C-alpha cells in the first residue's frame, strides 16, 4: 500500500482525493471550485485529447473557436436550455477596475464601467454557436456543418471535487447542423459510438450505451444518448453524452435553410461532449491501493527504467545497458523514462512510478549486469520477473497490448459481476444499499416514479440501454406495467 | 485580383479585414470585441500550436492548466502587474441568474448571488500561477519549474480587430521558476530564440530580436525581450515577448526556496507568450491582392487538385489520374485535397484555393489526359507550368521547400529595403510619414523623449536590437548623447 493513501475498501472517497494529489494529477486552487491540472495530470488529458481529436477528424469534423462569453439576451433565447443552466452561471457585469480611493494599494470594481448587457461565462456553447450558424447557413449546400471546439466552460457548482465536478472544467463540445432529422439522429448515434470506442479501446473502460430519461436529458435536447461506466465502488459515472437537439436551437435563433427545391425549413442540430471528468473515471476504474494504474495507451510514461547502483562506476555500467534498452523501446514507439537522478534512492523511485501508474518498470542492478538479466515489473498485476536482457525489449513492447487488454477484460468482468437483475422493490433496495453496481429493473416510464425512487434510495436511472430487450414486466415501485428494464445506480 | 478584395496599395486596412472574411479565417461575433475563429483559420492556428508545443517540449517544458478566474486579492498582489491590467479587466461579480419577475421569458442577474470577492477573468496568469507555485516550491530540488499553458485570456480592448486585437484571444503563456538569476535570464533568452526560430522557419517571417524600453515593458517585468516583424504596409508588429520577471512575483506571493546550504531566497521567474495575433502577422506578411498566401509548413491544405471535365466519363478518367497523384503526394507526407465536388465550376475552385492561400494547385483536364501532362500553379508567384505527369509528384514535393524558402527570402529582402538609418529629426519624420518601415535612430535613453517622439509622429521604439552596435551619436529629438541606435516604427 502506498504511504498515506487510504485503502479503497475502507474509504473510497478519501482514497480518490489523496490519490489525485499523490500522483500529481491536480489540486484545488485559490479560486473556489476551480482546479489546477498539474503537468502529469495534464499529460494524460493531452493523450485523451489527441486520440479523441483524431477520431473526430476521421469522422469528418473540424475544430473552431467561439467566444467565452454569451450575452444574456442570446443566452436566454432557447428557454429550456437557459432555464437548465441559469442557476449556475458566472456573470460578468463590469469591464474595468480602478484604484481604491481609500487604499491606493487595492483595486475596486469601477462602478462607471458597468456593461450595458451582462455576459454569461459559457456553461455550454449552443447559444453563441447557433447565433453564429445563422450567418453561415442559407441553403442545403451549406450543410452539414460538423464542428468541434476544445474549450473551458464554467458551471457554478456548490459541491466540487477534483475532475468529477469543478466550477471550471475543460471539455470538447461538438455542434453540428443538418438538413434532415435522420442525418442529425445518425450523427448523434455516431458520436456516442466514438465515445464508447474511445472509452473501451483507450481508457480500457467498458460502458453501457443508452438513452437518458426525460428528467435526465440535456436542457434543450429532444433526446440525450449517454455512455455510463461503473466505478470500483459500485457507483456509476456518466462518461459522455450526445444530444439530438431537434430544431429547438434553429427555432430559437431562426436558422432556416432552402432545400434543393427552394423550400425553407429549420435546421436540425446535435451537440456532444466529454470533459476532464473522464480523468476521474479513468482513475476510479483501474487504480488500486498502491496508487494510479494507467492503461498503456494513455500513459505519458509507459516504461520507467531505474538503475540500482553504488558509486559512479556502477552507474556508468548500468546506464550503458539501460540506455540501449531505452533506445530500442523508443524505436518501437514506446515512451520511456530512464531515471538516473542521483538525488533519489531506487526505493523512492519505485514508489513514485507505482503511485503514478507507469505500466512497466524495469530495474537494472549490479547483479543483473553479471547475469545478463533485468527485472521487469507490471503495474497492473504488481508482478515481477527477471529475464535475459536480450528478451526484454520484445517482452516489454508486447506487455503494452497485454496490459491494455487485461485492464479492459478485468473491468468487463467487474461490470458483469456488478450488474444485478432485480424484480421486486425489496430486492432493489437491498442491492442498491448493500451491493451497489448497476441494477436492471422494470420501471413504469413516468418521471414521478423515477423521482420517488431517487428520493427513497438516491439511485437514478442511468439509462435505458440501447440493447434493452422488450420484456413485459411490472414496475418495481408502482407495480404498473413496463415494457423493458432500465439501468439504475447511485452515480457520481 | 480577387473579387471584392480591396488592393493592398489602396486600402491596406480594408484589404486585411476583407481577406480575413473571404479566406474563412475568422469573423466578429455577437459579443463585443470577441471573434469566432472559423475552421479554416483554426486549422492554421492548430498547425502553429503543434509546432510551438513541440518546440516547448523539446526545450524541457510541460503543459498544465490553471484557473480562468483570478480573485481580486490575488490579482492586486503584484502592484505593477495589477496596475497594468486593471483598466481592461472583465469582472465576474455574480454566480446565478433568475427568472425576471416582470417577464417570465427573461433572465436577470440574481442580486442574492453576489460573490463575496470579485473574480477577474485572467488577462494573464502570473498571479494565479505564482500563488500556486508557492505550494510547490520549498527547496532547490523543486526547481526549475518549466510550465506552459495553452489558454484563452481576456483584455477589454476598446478598439478591436480580428486576430490583431480582440477582447478574448487564444495564446500560450510559459511560466518558469528558477533558483538563480542567471538561469532565469537564460530561459528568457532561450524562449525568445524559440519564438524567432518559429517565426522564421515556419511562418517564413523574419524578425528583429531586442529589448523593450522601460515604457514598453510587460507590467511587472524587470526586462522584456521581444521579436518584431514588419508588415507589408511598413508597420511593425510585436510577434512575441519573453519576460524576465526578477523576483517580483516571488516577493508578491512570498515564494522562497532553501538552497543546498539551507539558505532561503526568493525564486526567480520568467514568463513568455505568443497569441492568435500571430495569425494577423502571418496574413499581413505574405498575402496579396488575390487573397491569402500561406507558407507550406502552416498550410492546412498544401496541394489542391482540381479536375476539369465534361460529364461523368471524363470525370472518372481524370479522377483516376488525380487520385494516383494525390496518394503519391500523401505518401510523401503532404496534405492534399482532391476537389471533385460537382456543384462548383473549376473557375470557382481556382479562385477559392487562391483566396485561401493553398500553396500549390494542380489542374488536370481532358487535354492533359491525352498529352500525359498536368498543370501546376504556385500560389506565391502565381506562375503556372505544364509538365509530364510522371514528374509532378517529385516536382510538387520539392516546391514545398522552395516556396517556404522563397517566402522567407522575399520578406528578408523586404525588411532590408524598409529599414532606414536616419541621423536627423527631419529625416526621421520624413521616413516615418512617407516611407514607413523600421527606422534606426539615436535616442537619448529617456522615457520622456520616447513619449514626445511618439506624440509627434505616432512612432514608438519597437526595441533596442540585441545586435545594436555601440556607436556614439546624438539623439534625433533632443541632441543629447546616445550610445546606440534603436529601432522605431509605427506599430500594430
Ligand atoms: Zn511476462
Ligand atoms: Zn518548377
TrEMBL record, chains A, B:
PROSITE patterns the UniProt entry points to: AA_TRNA_LIGASE_II
Keyword Nucleotide-binding recorded: yes
EC id: 6.1.1.15
Predominant cellular place of this UniProt entry's protein: cytoplasm
Catalytic activity, as annotated: tRNA(Pro) + L-proline + ATP = L-prolyl-tRNA(Pro) + AMP + diphosphate
EC top class named in words: ligase
Domain Aminoacyl-transfer RNA synthetases class-II family profile: 27-295
Keywords (A to Z) from UniProt: Aminoacyl-tRNA synthetase, ATP-binding, Cytoplasm, Ligase, Nucleotide-binding, Protein biosynthesis
Superkingdom of this protein's organism: Bacteria
GO biological process: prolyl-tRNA aminoacylation
Gene Ontology cellular component list: aminoacyl-tRNA synthetase multienzyme complex; cytoplasm
Subcellular location: Cytoplasm
Listed GO MF terms: ATP binding; proline-tRNA ligase activity
Pfam families reported in the protein's UniProt record: HGTP_anticodon, ProRS-C_1, tRNA-synt_2b
Subunit details: Homodimer.
Family: Belongs to the class-II aminoacyl-tRNA synthetase family. ProS type 3 subfamily.
Role according to the record: Catalyzes the attachment of proline to tRNA(Pro) in a two-step reaction: proline is first activated by ATP to form Pro-AMP and then transferred to the acceptor end of tRNA(Pro).
Domain notes: Consists of three domains: the N-terminal catalytic domain, the anticodon-binding domain and the C-terminal extension.
Protein's UniProt name: Proline--tRNA ligase
Amino acid at each position: 500500500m502506498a504511504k498515506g493513501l487510504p485503502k479503497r475498501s475502507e474509504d473510497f472517497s478519501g482514497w480518490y482525493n489523496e490519490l489525485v494529489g499523490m500522483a500529481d494529477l491536480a489540486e484545488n486552487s485559490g479560486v473556489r471550485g476551480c482546479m489546477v491540472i498539474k503537468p502529469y495530470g495534464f499529460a494524460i488529458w493531452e493523450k485523451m485529447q489527441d486520440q479523441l481529436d483524431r477520431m473526430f477528424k476521421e469522422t469528418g469534423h473540424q475544430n473552431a473557436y467561439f467566444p467565452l462569453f454569451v450575452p444574456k439576451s442570446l443566452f436566454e433565447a432557447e428557454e429550456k436550455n437557459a432555464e437548465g443552466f441559469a442557476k449556475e452561471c458566472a456573470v460578468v457585469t463590469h469591464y474595468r477596475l480602478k484604484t481604491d480611493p481609500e487604499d491606493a494599494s487595492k483595486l475596486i470594481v469601477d462602478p462607471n464601467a458597468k456593461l450595458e448587457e451582462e455576459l454569461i461565462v459559457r456553461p455550454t456553447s449552443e447559444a453563441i454557436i447557433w447565433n453564429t450558424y445563422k450567418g453561415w447557413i442559407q441553403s442545403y449546400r451549406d450543410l452539414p456543418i460538423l464542428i468541434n471546439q476544445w474549450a473551458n466552460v464554467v458551471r457554478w457548482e456548490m459541491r466540487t471535487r477534483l475532475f468529477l465536478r469543478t466550477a471550471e472544467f475543460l471539455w470538447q463540445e461538438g455542434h453540428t447542423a443538418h438538413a434532415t432529422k435522420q442525418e442529425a439522429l445518425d450523427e448523434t448515434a455516431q458520436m456516442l459510438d466514438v465515445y464508447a470506442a474511445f472509452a473501451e479501446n483507450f481508457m480500457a473502460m467498458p460502458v453501457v450505451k443508452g438513452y437518458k430519461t426525460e428528467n435526465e436529458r440535456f436542457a434543450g435536447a429532444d433526446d440525450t444518448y449517454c455512455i455510463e461506466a461503473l466505478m470500483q465502488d459500485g457507483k456509476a459515472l456518466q462518461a459522455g453524452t450526445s444530444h439530438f437537439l431537434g430544431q429547438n436551437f434553429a427555432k430559437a435563433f431562426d436558422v432556416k435553410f432552402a432545400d434543393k427545391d427552394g423550400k425553407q425549413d429549420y435546421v436540425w442540430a446535435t451537440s456532444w461532449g466529454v470533459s476532464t471528468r473522464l480523468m476521474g473515471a479513468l482513475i476510479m476504474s483501474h487504480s488500486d491501493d498502491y496508487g494510479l494504474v494507467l492503461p498503456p495507451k494513455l500513459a505519458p510514461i509507459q516504461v520507467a527504467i531505474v538503475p540500482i547502483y553504488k558509486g559512479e562506476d556502477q552507474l556508468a555500467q548500468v546506464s550503458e545497458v539501460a540506455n540501449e534498452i531505452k533506445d530500442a523501446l523508443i524505436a518501437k514507439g514506446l515512451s520511456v523514462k530512464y531515471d538516473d537522478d542521483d538525488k533519489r534512492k531506487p526505493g523512492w523511485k519505485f514508489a513514485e512510478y507505482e503511485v503514478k501508474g507507469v505500466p512497466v518498470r524495469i530495474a537494472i542492478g549490479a547483479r543483473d549486469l553479471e547475469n545478463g538479466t533485468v527485472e521487469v515489473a507490471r503495474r497492473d498485476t504488481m508482478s515481477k520477473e527477471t529475464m535475459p536482457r536480450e528478451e526484454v525489449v520484445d517482452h516489454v513492447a508486447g506487455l503494452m497490448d497485454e496490459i491494455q487488454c487485461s485492464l479492459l477484460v478485468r473491468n468487463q468482468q467487474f461490470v458483469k459481476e456488478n450488474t444485478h437483475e432485480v424484480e421486486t422493490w425489496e430486492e432493489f433496495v437491498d442491492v442498491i444499499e448493500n451491493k451497489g453496481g448497476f441494477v436492471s429493473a422494470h420501471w413504469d416510464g413516468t418521471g414521478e416514479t423515477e423521482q420517488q425512487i431517487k428520493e427513497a434510495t438516491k439511485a437514478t436511472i442511468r439509462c435505458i440501454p440501447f440493447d434493452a430487450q422488450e420484456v413485459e414486466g411490472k414496475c418495481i415501485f408502482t407495480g404498473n406495467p413496463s415494457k423493458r428494464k432500465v439501468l439504475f445506480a447511485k452515480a457520481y
